[in-house]
Structures are given as C-alpha cells and as structure tokens.
Amino acid sequence: MSSTVASEGQKAVVMENTSRRDALTEIEKKYQALWEVEKPFEVNAPTNEDIAYGTPTDELHEKFPKYFASMAYPYMNGVLHAGHVFTYSKAEFTIGFERLRNKNALFALGFHCTGMPICAAADKLKREIELFGEDFSGVPAEAEEEVEEPKKDDKVKTDPTKFSAKKSKVAQKTGRAKYQFEIMQQLGIPLDDIKKFQDPYHWLEFFPPLVEKHVKLLGGKVDWRRSMITTDMNPYYDAFIRWQMNRLRELGKIKFGKRYTIYSVKDGQACMDHDRQSGEGVLPQEYTAIKIQVTEFTDKALEHFKSENFDLEGKKVYLVAATLRPETMYGQTCCFVSPKINYGVFKASEDEYYICTERAFKNMAYQDLTPVRGDYTSSAKVNGSLLVGSKIHAPLAVHEILRVLPMETILENKGTGVVTCVPSDSPDDFVTTRDLFNKPEYYKIEKEWVIEEPVAIVNTEKYGDKCAEYLVKELKINSPKDANQLAQAKELAYKEGFYNGTMIIGKYKGEKVEVAKPKVKSDLVASGEAFIYNEPENVVMSRSGDSCIVSLEDQWYTDYGEENWKEQALECLARMRTFHNETKNAFEGVFDWLKNWALSRSYGLGTKIPWDDKYLVESLSDSTVYQAFYTICHLLHKDFNGQEIGPLGVKPEDLTDEAFDYIFCRGDSVENIPVPKEKLDVMRREFEFYYPLDESISGKDLIPNHLTFYIYCNVALFKKEFWPAGIRCNGHLMLNNAKMSKSTGNFYTLEQLVNKFGADATRIALADAGDTVEDANFDETNANAAILRLFNLKEWFEEMVKNKDTLRDGAYNFFDRAFDNEMNQLIEETYKNYEITYYKAALKTGLFDYQYARDFYREISLSTGAGLHKDLVFKYIETQVLLLSPIAPHFCDYVYRELLGKGSIHHAKWPVPEAAVSNELSAALSYTRNLQRTIREAEGFALKKKKGGSSEVNKDADCSLAVYVCSSFPQWQAKYVELAKKLYSEGKFDDMKSVKAQIDGKDMKRAMPFINELKKQLSTEKPEEVFNRELLFNELDVVRQAVESIKKAPTVLNVAEVQIIAFNNGSSTGKNIINDSDVDIPPKVKSIENAVPGHPAVLFKNL
Fold it and tell me: What's its catalytic activity (predicted)?
C-alpha cells in the first residue's frame, strides 16, 4: 500500500507497504536477466542468402518488413531524467508494437558527447580542486557559487517582416547554484571519484555505461551493439563525421565567410544552442543604427566632460539609436535617453565618437564597426540626465534642430539605450511626447523643447496618416505606464504600417512601406548616416556563465538558407509522417527563418574539421545523420568508444570517404577502397535495409535546430528513397502537474523512478502521461495505481490457470458472445491507437477498457450462476498481455511464458480476431449495461423515503421487478425526426429561429427538448445513426436472454419475480413475454410514458 502526500500544490506518493511492487520487480529482474542472455532486441538485416544483394529496396522491404526508430541521443554530462525517459518511451512503445506486426524492428541509442558542456564542467572541477583540494575539504562553509541569472525581458515584438518561431528554452535543473563537485555528488558520484572528472574524456567512459544500465532497468528494447559515443574518442564515428563534412562541403552546403553569430567572448568562440545555459534558439537580430549628431551639448554635459578630461574639440559625437523601422526616420521629433542609464562615449573612428550603452558598443566591437576589435573601453561616461536638452541633428528628420529628451522606460539590456522618437507611428513615442509636453516641470525640461505635433509619414487606410495617435485614442491609453495597451497598440501599428502602409513623405513617397523600407535603409548606410548593427534577440548565457554578444566572424558555416536545399527539405517534409499538424507547421516556420549556422568552434570535444583542423565541428552539426551510423556501427566496433574492432575486422583508417559513399549507396565503385567488397556489401545491406529512419522521436524544443538539420542533411547526402520517413515530437513532461525542478524536489531520474515504482508501472504511467505536442504529465498516483492493477491481474491470471478445469466449456451464451465480440472490438481499437502512436489511448482501450470488459463479463457470469467460459478466459489472458506488451513487457512475458507456456512475448504476433466485430452484439451489450444501470437507478428511487417517512418498497420484503419494453416511438417524435433530418441536410439545424418556426405550438414543450437531444447526439454520432432510430438488435430477445442478470442487478432489494412486459407506445395493455400473459400498463407513470425502443422503463413493487 502507499499514501499520497500533498505539498505545495503537487503530489508525491509515499511508498509504505511495497510487497506488491516487490513481487512485480522480482519478475522484472528475472526477465531482464533472461533477455540479457536471449538478446531479443539485437536484430540484423537479411543476408545475401535471404535475398540477393542489389535487390531494389522496395522489393527488399516488401519481402522483409522493417521499422527503424530513434530518439534524439542524450547528452553525456549526466544520467537520464524523467523528461528524457518520456521521449525515450515513445520509441520503446513503437518498437514493441511494430514487432507484434511481424516487422524487423530496430531501436538504437547512442551517446552525444560533442561540444563544450563536458569540457566546461571539467574545467570548473579543475579550478575547484586547485582552490579546495582533491577532497574539497577547503570549500567555505555554507558557500554557494554565485551564478549570474539572466534577466527576463518583457516580451517585445520586433520586426514585423521577420517570421518569429516560438523558441525553446533550456530548462535548468541543477537546483540552487552549486559548485561543480556538489553537482557531481548530486549525480551519485562518490567524493573520492570526483577528481577523475577533471579529464573530460572520463565523462565519456563513465556515463554511457551508466545510462545503458538504467535503460536496461526499465526493460529497454535497445540493440546495444549499435551504440556509440561521438567525438574523436571513437575513431569510427570520427571518420563518419569527417566524411559527412567533406561531402557537404563538396555539395556547396558548407561555406566560409563573415557571418553574424551568437558569440561568447569568454570562451572565444561561437555559442550555439547546445553550448548555452539559457537562450536556446535565440538568433542575431539586425537593426539599423542611426547616427544622431549632437550639435550642442548642455552646459551640464560640457562641465561633466571637462571633469572627465574628455576634450570635444575636433570631435563629432553621435547618439546611436537602433531601429527596426528606418523608413520612419522622416518623422523624428526628438531623441530619447534614460536618466537612469550611465552611457559610455566610445571612439568609433579617428574623429567620431558614439554615445550608447557599454553592452551595445561591446557588440559593435566584434562587428568590424570599431577601430580595434574587441576593445570597448569608453573615453568617458555620462549619465543620461546630463544629455537631456542637448541639440541634435537627426538624419532625414523634417525638423532641422531637435532636442534630447528623457524616457524612463528605456531598457539598458535592449538596443543601444538611445531611442529615436517618431510619435506619428510609435504609440510609445506619442504617449511619452504628450506626457512631456503636459508636464515639463515634472520632467525638468523646457516646454518648447517638445515638438507636440507629429510629422505624418505613412498612410494606412485603417488608421489614417497618424496611426499612433489613432490607436492611443482607440485603446484609451492615458499614460506611458499603460504597458499592456501600449504593447497591443505597438503590434497593431507595426503590422498595419508595414503590410498596408504607403509612404507620404520623402524620396520614396507613394511607395508601399515594405518596398520603401530596404531602400531607405540602404540610402542611410550608403550616406554614412547609419550602419548595420546586430545583437542577440534576447539574453543568451553560455555554459561558462558568459553573457553572449553578436560577433561578425570569419567562420565555416552551413548555408541552410540556400533556396534549392530548402525546396528539397520542404519536399521531404511534405511526404513525411509528422503525426501532428503542429509539428509540420513548426518545421515550415523554421524553414522560413533559418539561414546560416556556424559550423566551427575552437573549444570543446568533437571531430576536427577535415580541411581546417584548428577547428572542431560544433555539436548540432555532428548530430544530423548519426542514425545512418547506427545501421553499421555494430559491424565496426564492439564497444561504445570504438576501441575494440568489430566482427568485420575493419580498421578506422580504412573507412575512407569513398568507403562511406559505397556503404551509403552514394556510389557503386569500390576502386581504391581498402575494405574488401564483401565486407562493404554487408554494411551496405544493413544501411539500405534499415534506412530510411521510419520515426525520429524528440521533444518539440529540438524542431528549431537538431530536427531541422536532420531533414536538411539527410536530403543532401542520401538518395530520395532514403529520406526521413517520419518525425514524432512530444511536449515537455511535468511531474505531478508541476514543472520538474530539483530545487523543489519535484524531480526524478530514470533510476529513481524504477526504484520507486518498478519498471512496468513506470512505463504505464509514462504511456498515460500524454500523446500530443502539448506538455504531458507524469502522475505518481497513476504509477502507484498501475502496481495494484498489474498485481491483481497477475493474481487472477494465476488463479485461472490453476483452476482451469473448473471453468465452463461448450456452446457460448449471449454474454459469452458479447464478451468475445467486445474483446475483438477493443483489439481493433487498440491497434489503431498504437498505429497512430497514441499510447495513452492505446492504454485506455488495451488495458483499462479491456479489463472493464472482463470485469463486467465476470460479474454477470458469476452472479447468474453460468460461470466463466474457459476459452474466453484464456483468450482474454493471452490477448491482454499481447495488447499490453509494448508498454509493460516484463509482466506480459511472464504471463505469456510461464502461465500460458507460449514462449517469448517478443516473438509473438498481434492477435487477429476470428470473426469481424458485430455491431449488433456491441449495441446489445451496451443496451444490457445501460439496463443494469437503469435498474439500479430505479432501485434507488424506489428506496428513497418520501415526505411521509416511508419509501415505495420495503427493502426487507420480496419484490417484483418489471421491465417495460416499448416497441414503438411516439408518432409526434417521428414527425420531428424528419424535420430535424431535413433542416440538418439544409445546414439550418443550428438556426433556432428556423427550427421553432416549423414546430406546432402545442408540441413546443416536448418537441424542443427532443430536438436538443438530437442535436447533442449529432455532436458525437454519425447523422445516419441519429436519424435512423431502428435498433441494430432485437430488444426483446436480448432482454429475454438477460433475465437472470436482470434479477441479480439490484444491490439491496431481493427480487423474487421478474416481468418483461412488451407494449406499444400509448397502449394500455402489454404482454409479459416470460409467461405469455396479458397485463395492464400502469397509467400516469412518467418513466413508462417516456419509454421508447432501446430505453425501457423499470418498476419495483413488493409482492
């Protein structure tokens, strides 16, 4: 037994009596040991003897069906947690189901080690050992390493011309800020062993075997022969990546040049998604930096510069404002700075200086915009308040002289800290300008500095010439503090202005804004009045704790924006199975914005770029076609690290690019390949048999990078017949309806889950967690309930096997046939759910509903004295474990082998019903269940005490139960069924005016509820079923066969007599079909008056 303890809105199951769990885990351990010997998950492609090499792949797959599934391989800086396992389970369940479909089903799992996270952690340990000693005894008491937390900016809508896919976020699960050695302790590593992890390669030797061990505890259906680590530590994988890079470069996909990239100054290299502590998916954002010349500083500013020893003589000083809308610069009426920000004055050239934030100039210093790369030392500092009132000249502005004015809402961590003011088109600027004009004393400015009247620059049909003013009035925005309304107004103004606006001023007057914008930008840059400036869209923190910038880097990059390549990727996506429309839409969104991706890095683990070996291939770029390597690596090496040569005896150095070309069907020549052709053919067969990958399974957060690159690189490197066939994405996993977090204790590793609930119960809870791309929920109470469910099934199965000779045989009765039919129906439904990878639904139909069907059959058969039919009991046991085996394999293998004596469940096939599902039997069974419910409701009503204190029947006396079966519908209903059918076909059934207009006034009270019930039925049933009310079964025959069950249905009253009375609607007499006698129909009994075919009335009375 267990109990549930609620804590801070989340539930944690406390295991108390674990005897049932322990009984199940004993079975699990036994079968895991058996599988270790039998190796049922090790599969191979057909040999040349099975089917000749060179056979077309479609013929090969027709004769030998296969299924190849893979998940995004986990990163080896720790063990698997519940989130990993949720994604992993989708692949597991798929493979189990495909094996039942008689397919050669392969699931391989590698270990990702490329990149900087492992190196960064190893370097931290080195520093901590230097500081505190190898035993860490010198660590300060209660000390915590301070980690800078990135600030969360408010959501800011940027350029409306740029598609913005929803970016993923790397979830931080390290709890409170800790030293690295403490994090290692948290992973279960003994203190004495932690010093070994100073060597980054030790991580690669330690964690992969541990992950293998944990996955085996779950009963993983993995072919471990095909596992490998990445990086040059595995020379075979290293050769594979070098081949991939060489071929992509030859195809023109990899290029060299200056490209804007997210960059860590601390690490000295590009910081790609897997190198980030936060900010995954964030890209460079391009701005037009407007140079606004200061023509006259305020006296306070001049005095300050003098005190800073900054001489203005012979210098041009510019306030630099970053804008996404250069076409609106005609409408500038001032320039805003924040009195809360201390700005820097930075040397930009021999005689030009920029005023902006240090963060902004740091970005510029790495974008070839400054005299010395990387130097962002300021010549002077100045607070924004000292600049307020200075005279300026702004490019393109209608007004020759403008002023610097204060704006307190400017963010220091976004843009340059300087903001242009265009009140005609920016709601923020309009409201701030109005506020400044109305309250100059409050802001300590002169009123005449404020230009109140906006300059019209863009006309839109919807908002006129001054959209900002229009929207501020429309949305009733009264203050710069009305943040939500301003955000809404800003988005409306940007979209309408860009897509539907026309320029009404300047060189491009009369042109659409979307046409004029790039022209204005180009003119400003060409004239030297502006320059292109980039910064990260949002805060990006590297794993080394560095706040990243955008750098213009000479680098190797993959050109994913190349148009022909994109068309190929779209073609692949169109023919691919994506399981959810949201997944396909997300990919299309990424394809729209994805352009270049930095390929090279100088720090971390990985494969060296073959033609430029001072750089490594970054971690997302060596993880695009590794599934192809799964198909052959068991033939190349015996261990994860590629140190033990595999069964073919091929050495890493023999795997030339030409060898891989032959293996992966890119060429047929074997000239100058050191590997013998017969060995190449064995590997080629493995690839062409298992490829394409039928299903790549991953969290949806990898769509913007890993999964998109997977599509692109596969279509570039392989023939069309080998292009990816399917991608299944799932949402994130919550735990007990709360976000997983170590700091709150709401967190489990795979090992912890299995230790607490056992493997099969954990797997059932994972299946029950959710199937869509929305966030799923692992509920511990479901895992705990699964223990009880499996244990009770085990006990009952064992009892049935032990007592099988006492079970009934011979001809089937009605409930036998109905149970058999319901099993067949649920088998079909479960198959369909597995086929579309809806495992929660498969669990419902294949376990919960299946067991309910058994329970009803058992209850009805035992209560009537008929007993259980042996054939059906054993059909149920066998089919139950087959249906459940993809999800709970240990329990199912135990039952299949030891109780049924049928051999390994892993070699079993999906059950095929002997007969087609009978809709007549299904409807009849549903009717009998509803009748039982109706009887119990009538019993409750009969026992309910009335005002006088007594009930209709005395529970201590025998009584009779009468079932009134009506054989016809009321005539008035037939009339309105036809009316409803007609209106539905005309599309007018939802128009209540049309409906009411055709109902007779005298029928209104009864017809409207009836029509509403029809409407309700149409929401869940097919129209032909709703409007054709003829029953699929003979109601009297079914009731006659169910007499004994009807008699036993009441739970309190003792039924001594059952009457089944057939009558026509409105009739005063009927016939008792049990003794063929005529009986009077009680008058004015509402339930009898409402009885119709399929819905009988039930009455109790004492004898």
Answer: tRNA(Leu) + L-leucine + ATP = L-leucyl-tRNA(Leu) + AMP + diphosphate
Segment 100-132, tens digit of pLDDT: 999 999 999 999 999 988 998 999 999 999 999
pLDDT at 982 over 90: no
Give the global pTM: 0.82
Backbone angles phi, psi at 677, to 5 degrees: -60, -40
DSSP 454: P
SS3 42: coil
Residue 674's CB: how many other CB atoms inside 10 A? 12
Q: Which fold has domain 284-536?
A: Isoleucyl-tRNA Synthetase; domain 2 (3.90.740)
End-to-end CA distance of the chain: 46
**Under the phi-then-psi rule, with left for phi > 0, alpha for psi from -120 to 50, and beta for the rest, what region is 747?**
beta
Neighbours of 133 (CB within 10 A): 12
Q: Convert the pLDDT of each residue in 465-478 to its tens digit.
A: 999 999 999 999 98
Domain residue limits, the chain? 62-135+178-252+563-590+618-730, 284-536, 781-917, 948-1102
Strand order in the sheet with 776-778: 738-739, 733-735, 776-778
CB atoms within 10 A of CB 542: 25
Distance, in Å, from the CA atom of 170 to the CA atom of 282, rounded to the nearest integer, reads 11
Considering the four listed CATH numbers 3.90.1150.10, 3.40.50.620, 3.20.20.70, 3.40.50.12780, the one that applies to the domain covering 62-135+178-252+563-590+618-730 is 3.40.50.620
Pairing of strands 1055-1063, 959-966: parallel
Let me know if domain 781-917 sits in CATH 1.10.730.10: yes
Q: Are 1065 and 1092 in contact (CB under 8 A)?
A: yes
Residues 285, 164: Cα–Cα separation, whole Å? 11
Enclosing H/E stretch for 690: helix 677-690
Q: What gap in Å lies between CA 354 and CA 379, rounded to an integer?
A: 10
Distance CA 395, CA 240 (A): 54
- Name the burial class of residue 796, with classes exposed (0-12), middle (13-18) and buried (19+) by CB atoms within 10 angstroms of its CB: middle
User: Residue 162 — φ and ψ, nearest 5°?
Assistant: -105, 125
Got the DSSP string for 803-854? TGGGSB-SS--HHHHHHHHHHHHHHHHHHHHHHTT-HHHHHIIIIIHHHHHH
Q: Is 427 helix (H, G, I), strand (E, B) or coil?
A: helix
3-state secondary structure of 271: coil
Distance of alpha carbon 614 from alpha carbon 841, whole angstroms: 52
Spatial CA neighbour of 349 closest among 364, 363, 336, 329: 364
Output phi, psi for 229, to 5 deg. Answer: -100, 155
Residue 568: strand, helix, or coil: helix
Cite the beta strand spans of 515-593 per DSSP E.
530-536, 541-542, 549-559
Q: What is the pLDDT of residue 142?
A: 59
Q: Which two tokens stand for residue 361?
A: 């100039």
Q: Which amino acid is at 123?
A: D
Residue 15 phi, psi dihedral angles, 5° rounding: -80, 125
Q: Which residues of 492-531 are buried (b: 16+ CB within 10 A; e: fewer)?
A: bbbebbbebbbbebbebeebebeebbebbbebbeeeebbb
